[in-house]
Every structure is written in C-alpha cells, then in structure tokens.
Predict the structure.
Amino acid sequence: MSFAWAKQYEPKTPFTKWMDEKLPLPRLVYSAIGAGYPVPRNLNYMWNFGVLAGFFLVLQIVTGVVLAMHYAANTEVAFAQTEHIMRNVNYGWLMRYAHANGASFFFIVIYLHIFRGFYYSSYKAPREMIWLLGVVIFLLMMATAFMGYVLPWGQMSFWGAKVITSLFGAIPLVGEPLQTWLVGGFAPGNSALNRFFSLHFLLPFVIAGVVILHIWALHIPGSSNPTGVEVKKESDTIPFHPYYTAKDGFGLGVFLILFAIMLFFLPNTLGHPDNYLEANPLSTPAHIVPEWYFYPFYAILRAFTGDLALFGVTIIPAKLLGVIAMFASILVWFFLPWLDKSPVRSGHYRPLFKKFFWFGLIPCMLALFYLGGAKPEEPFISLSQIATAYYFLHFLVILPIVSQIEIPKPLPFSITEAVLGKDDDGAAQPAE
Amino acid sequence: MTIRLGGIILGLGLTAILLLWSLLPGAVALYKDGFPDKPDYYAFQEENIAPEDGFSFEGPMGKWDYAQLQRGYQVYKEVCSACHSLKFVAFRNLEELGYSEAEVRAEAAAWTVPGINQQTGETATRPGLPTDQFPSPYLNDVAARAANNNAIPPDLSLMTKAREEGTHYVYSLMMGYVDPDPADQALSPDFTTPEGLYFNEHFYSINIAMAPPLTPDRVSYSDGTEASVENMAADVAAFLTWTAEPTLIQRKQTGWFVLGFLLFATFLAFFSYKQIWAGVKPKK
C-alpha cells in the first residue's frame, strides 16, 4: 500500500523498538496519517472535510455517551429526563446542544465531502470502493440521526417517527405486518423508543468501523486531487504530516468557530419548536417535517402525488412510488462509478459537466433542501416534482450522456506541473 | 455499458412517471382552480410584536434583568398559575432570580403541593418545600378540560422555546386581545368568534380559549413599576424565557470564552500552516 517513496517508521528508543516488534501500532498511525503517507501536494480546502467528518464523529460519540448516562428510554419519562439534562445536570445543556448541533454540523461536513466527490469525480476508478463505503456511511448516518431525533420524545420526535416508520407499510403484501414488527406496535411507543435508543447507541460504532474500511480503501490508491491527474512521482506528493495536519488544523479551527457560534448563540435555530412539546399521539402537529438534513429526500418522497394507474387500475400507489424514489435517490450514488465513464476526473477540465454541476445539480439540491421543509401546498409541490425529475435525470441520463459526448480540456502532465507551471520530466517527454 | 443504458432507461422512466402522474394532474388542477383559498381567519393574523426597547437578555451580550424576572414571577403567581402549570421548574430555582434561601423557603411554603398523610397514607396536601416542582392547578387533564371549555391550558415551562420567536410570541399573545380590524372583517365577513372563545390577532387560529388574562393594575408591583398590560406582558414573557432556559445567559457567556479561545487557536493554526508550507508553495 501507498507509494514506493513513502517514508518508513523508524523506532528510536528501546521502548518504541520493543513496541514495534510486539504491536506496530505507532507504525500503522505513522503510515496512515503521519509522515509516512504521501499525499498530492495540490489539495485545496475541499479536501479538509474528511478529517472534519472524523472530528464530528468523535464529538458525537463523546457527547452522546455522556448524554446516555443521564437519559432514560421510556416514553413516560424521556421528555422530562431530557429537560433534567438541560436544567439539572452540570453543563448538561452544553452536552445536549453540542450533540444536537454537532449532528447538523456532521451533516454539513458530509454534504460538502460528498459534493467534493461529485465535482472532482472522486468515485472513479481506482477509488470506487472508497466511494461505495462512503455511501454506506451516509446511509448509516441517516439511520442514526433519525433514531436520535426520536429520543427526546417531543412532538416532532413522535410524529417524525410515525411518518418514517409508516413508509415500511407501503411495501406490497408484507408492508403492514413488517411495520408493526419493526416498530413493536401499531404506532411508535415504548418498544420503539427502546429499540431506537439501543440502535442509536450501536450504529455510531458501526459507522466508526466502516470509516476504518473507508480510510483503508483510501490508502491503497492514495488521495485524489483537484487536477484528477494521478500521482506519478515523489515531487507530486508531500507527507501528510506535518503539511496536511497543519492545513486540517486550520480548517478545523475555522469550522469550530462556526460551530461555536451556532452552539452558544443560536442553538435552537436548526431545530423545530414543536419538539419542545411532549409527544402526544392524539394531537397531530400542523406541519410534520424531519430535521433539515433530510429535507432533500423528504421533498423527493412527497413529490409523488399521483398513483401509477393504467385504465383505472392502480399498479403502484403514490406512497410506494415516493418511497422507491427516496431510496433510489441515494442508491443511485452507488452506481456513479459506472454511470460516469469520462476518463477525466476533475470538473475543472470538463466544460460541459461543469455547467450541469453548477447550473443543474447544485440549484436542484438547494431547491430540494428548501422544498423539503416547505408546506405541502402549491407551488411547492409542483416545484419539488420538477426538482426531483431533474435530480434523477442528472445522475441517470445527463451524466452518462455528457461523459460520452464531452470534449475535455487538456490535462496538465503531472501534479508538479499543475503546481509549479513546469515539470522537467514532462518537457523531455511531451504529453501525448 | 449495461449499467449506463439501464440507468438512462430507469431515469427517463422515473421522470416520466413523476411528470405524467404527479405533476400533470396537479398543474391542470392549479390551472383550473387556481391556488386554494386560505381559511377565513388568515386575514386577521398579525406578525409577532416586541416591546419598544426589546428584552435585556436578547442578543449575544444579553443579561437577565432580575427585577423584571421577579415581576414576571409575580404575574405568573398571581395570574397565570390559576390555570397553567410550570412543571419543570422547582422552587429552589427561584434563588437564580435573586431571592435569598430564606425567601425561597417562605415562598415555597406559601404554595400547596400534593402529599401523603403520614398517619393514614391517604392523599393529602402539604406546604411546598424548595425541592418541590411548581404544582399543577388541576388534578389531571380531565379536570383541566372540564374547567376550561374543553381546552387544556398548556404547561408554561418551555412555552417560549415551543413557539417560533417564543418570547415575542408570549408578549404578542398577551397584547393580542383587540377588536377585529373592520377592514379585515370586510374581507372575511363570515368570520365570527364563538361563545366561550376570544379574539386574539396573534393566536394561530385567531379564536383562543384563554380569556384575556391581563387588565391594567391586575397585579400591584412593589418596585413602583406601572402595572400596565404592556409591562406585565413583557415581564411575564421575560420570566417564561427564564423558565424555558435558565442557562441562557451562562450559555452566551461561555460562548464568548470559547470563541475567544478558538479565535486565538485558529490564528496560531493559520500561521503554523503558513510557516510549514512556506517551502512548498510556489510564489505566485
């Protein structure tokens, strides 16, 4: 793994020599995120978000474990227990606000990380496996975040859980028994809250496991870079430490400042006021919405308002269509490495792709983010139908066709040339 | 190749279903009927209002106005508590409003809380202790409904966090008992306020079950503040902001400390980044 010129760990003291023989953990760290991992020298700030995502995963686990010490998963007391954390536990308010806003920031970071991948085609060979594992992590994160939002047992917790678990009821034949079995009742209740708490505690550690695989898979081809040209020689790379540890440290600082502003001055802005009302199965909120990070997918779910019917016979009901589309909207990411066959990775050198990215996908995603939180009334319904249609067209139709017909701009010979403006090896042997 | 072909077919298929079965009928209906009519009470709804000078705890440098919180507590005790509970707040928390331990003890004792007769084990009542939570004025939800025209008066502990711009909402609601604007009434001639409900231009459906709670001089303030409806509304809104989040000011103050540290650390991180990269980055 890694490049031939990667520096090797050299234990110096008797203890580190002994340790290296028995358990070469320092060697592993040195080669994974230390001076022994050569990284392209031209990474821009968009490459900060991997490390930032790792930071927020750790933050969520640390604050979450502390919160779990004071929480009780029982519908009778869960809401009051959450208020107990906010009022009586020392710095409980800090832990809970950090956990709730930490989830939002985790998603902000992950969305930027994913869209970095879209723009620079990070999913292309030889990095397909990193991408596939990344999509798995995103799905696990969504499940974890959804179950976490149920735990305070507020109105939105309960009604969000009811809407999302009822999606399983849309599956033909087995839907309703399956839903009852998964929820442990006809509506979310104590059994649902208990299993959600258990899984909400478990899944972050599953995420951490898949993150290890994600990083392992990353170290086989090495990091991608903004030119999309593969590393050719030592002058294309610099060691991860100290260069990128320093750069990530600065990026982390900037992001933590934004996080602190939200956490200490606007902690409820990203949440929903209804969740400060205790869950009441007899009173439906006027407007049920999930957390903001699910809005695009919620908009896709709600975009399907008509049953697919031929000659008056319903073939697929609208609800099932919506559920299929919502899951398909993420599953389609799994197929990206094979849908986009352009040999050029970076969007910098793909003029047509770049236009569809900035003027198609990005406005479409921003629209879906807005529409998922909007009231289910016109004109928002029609707009989310148009945005959903574009979303699928973009990945399934536009991307494959663009990658076929586009004439990319000339690539630099190497990363060294891209950074320094000249590469002596490249001059001696002109690009083909 | 097969994946791409399958993708194109699936993508076009999904889009066709979406456009033909969902968007088309919706667009036709919209063209024929236009946007659906809003309920007739919409005309009367007003935006939330705030006192002229705002509240002392608002903004990043906000501080509690303890005198105001104490006045707000007086309004809660003498007016709101007849119908509304405050179940997440304990008497001991009143010390945070500037009352002494002895005052809190006396205040708690003035309230009656549910207890148990120590001789017979039957349910009874006893004077409150600082460790007790504020008691509910009703035995249970059924009793609350029966006494209030079938509407349960909500618990007020978290009210200012359970509504958009909650502090302003509480203030607006207290100030919202006015006569309907004749211009709005002309727009919705069918709109009436049924018997037992009250017109309030800041309530989401306009007709609210709560009778106007504040009238001038409803309480008499000991610090000489005029007991106008505006002042009482602002005071009780401030008090309920404190009950919803007693750590509000501590949170903001901690925030400044953390931000200061982070700015300093990020400043250092930036310069160490620049220094470490000095030999690698080409001069532009």
Observations:
- Chain B has a mean pLDDT of 90.
- The helical segments of chain B are 2-33, 66-78, 101-109, 141-147, 166-175, 182-187, 229-244, 248-277.
- The radius of gyration of chain B is 28 Å.
